[in-house]
Amino acid sequence: MSAHLTHPVQAPADTATSVALRPTRSAAASSRTALGALIRRDLTVLRKNFGEFVGRTIMQPLLLVFVFLYVFPAIGQGVGGGGGRAGESDFATVLVPGVVAISIMFQGIQSVAIQLSQEFGFTREIEDRVQAPCPIWLVALARVLSGATQALISALIVFPIAAVVHAPGVTAHLSVHWWVVVTLIPLSCVAMTSLGLVLGTTFEPRNIGLMFGFVVLPLVFLGGTYYQWTRLGAVHVGGFHWLQVLVLVNPLIYIAEGMRAGLTDASHMSLVVIYPVLTGFCALFLALGLRNFRRRVLS
């Protein structure tokens, strides 16, 4: 009986020894695991709602290309129509990369800014996210990276549509330069989702309409979607090319010009300028967004 009574006394010691010998994960490893889990969660939601995502992604670019490159030339009002089908084809060559650029911008902003406005709003879902075993800034970074993935997918969906939806006789002269495409599109996606992080943590949910009216629309119309930056030199006052200088504060102009460099042989802004400036915008937006995110979470 005494032997039977001594057995429970030894078990806790053995358990304590095994627990002490069990390796513990570092904080960095835990953070990486949490980051991966947050991104997988967002991508799982995307997979389950992929049809809605595709519809939301292609609607605006499809209508834009359909009206400008199919309807207008068909009714004799094509942009660039003064040069006949050749002029309309030149405009198509300029517009297709611009459409890819705005699809990246819209999807990048929507996937982050709109979602954050909801999570910081009535649902307060953000409180569940920040309970993940990782720093607060990593939760925001996970949203940026998952949003960048969605922006990348939207570019892959929109490009073939924009490349083929043209009126008879209108042809976009495309020439894919893969090293530019492979490097610039991911950088553009991260830059636009970082901008979405800034906007989503700056605008209150009730003011999200102001974000589109006062930020998104000016970005689109002054972002080189419909024209080349190199052609803006024609707009000047007293020899000062004011519009060509003004649009340089718009990050979309660098994405649109970069897409023209990667998808066409049309004239474009120098890549020596595009890459470092776009990287600078990405770092700036990410720093501001992470700061704002932390303030909103802790307030």
Automatic annotation (TrEMBL):
Q: Which domain of life is it from?
A: Bacteria
Q: Name one Pfam family in it.
A: ABC2_membrane
Residues annotated as coiled-coil are none
Q: Name one GO cellular component term.
A: ATP-binding cassette (ABC) transporter complex
UniProtKB keywords? Antibiotic resistance, Cell membrane, Membrane, Transmembrane, Transmembrane helix, Transport
Subcellular localization is given as:
Cell membrane; Membrane
Question: Which BP terms from GO are recorded?
Answer: response to antibiotic
**Which chain regions cross the lipid bilayer?**
57-75, 95-116, 136-164, 176-198, 210-229, 235-256, 268-290
Record domain ABC transmembrane type-2: where: 52-296
Which protein is depicted?
Transport permease protein
> To which species is this protein native?
Streptacidiphilus fuscans
